[in-house]
Amino acid sequence: MAIFLITVGIGGSFALINRIMDFSSVSSDRLQAAYLAQEGIENVRNTRDSNWLAGNEWNLNLPSGTETGLLGKFNRITTITTPEPDKIVVSVEVNWQERGRDHRVVAQTELYNWR
Fold first, then answer.
1. How many domains does the chain have?
2. Residue 94: exposed, middle, or buried by beta-carbon count in 10 A (0-12, 13-18, 19+)?
3. Which of 44, 107, 112, 114 sees the fewest Cβ atoms within 10 Å?
4. What is the DSSP code (8-state) at residue 61?
5. What integer pLDDT is reported at residue 3 of this predicted model?
6. What is the pLDDT along the chain (115 residues), one digit of tens a residue?
7. How many helices and strands, by DSSP H and E, does the chain display?
8. What burial class does residue 57 get, using C-beta atoms within 10 Å of its C-beta: 0-12 exposed, 13-18 middle, 19+ buried?
């Protein structure tokens, strides 16, 4: 009986450790994806600001589209919409697969032509 209880206890401990490691890995990847999404927004903001400094239209050649293989496994999709003439909405989605499941982080902001 004692051997059975010890075996069940050790098996439960291994299962718990495995779940904690899975959670830690997904959390780490989610944090990296959040940083990549913010970087995508900053790329658009930097292009807008560079356009102003160069005397160009503020929304000229804003970076949008899909980038694959970021840090090996992340894909970033940047979408820009123009609901008003002096306003753009930047939406960045970062997705990846881990352990057979799809994961996704989305960041969104509004940028204006305040000049």
1. 1
2. buried
3. 114
4. T
5. 87
6. 888 888 888 888 888 887 887 777 788 899 999 999 999 999 999 999 999 999 999 999 999 999 999 888 999 999 999 999 999 999 999 999 988 899 999 999 999 998 7
7. 1, 4
8. exposed
Q: 44 is written with which tokens?
A: 């658009």
Residue 46: its H or E element = helix 2-54
Distances (CA, A) of 87 to 21, 32, 80, 81, 102: 43, 28, 10, 9, 32
The helix/strand/coil state of 74 is strand
Structure tokens at 72: 């090996």
User: Using a CB cutoff of 8 Å and minimum separation of 24, what contacts does 68-75 make?
Assistant: 70/36, 70/94, 71/32, 71/36, 73/29, 73/97, 73/98, 74/32, 74/33, 74/36
Longest Cα–Cα distance of the chain, Å, equals 82
| Host domain of residue 27 | 2-112
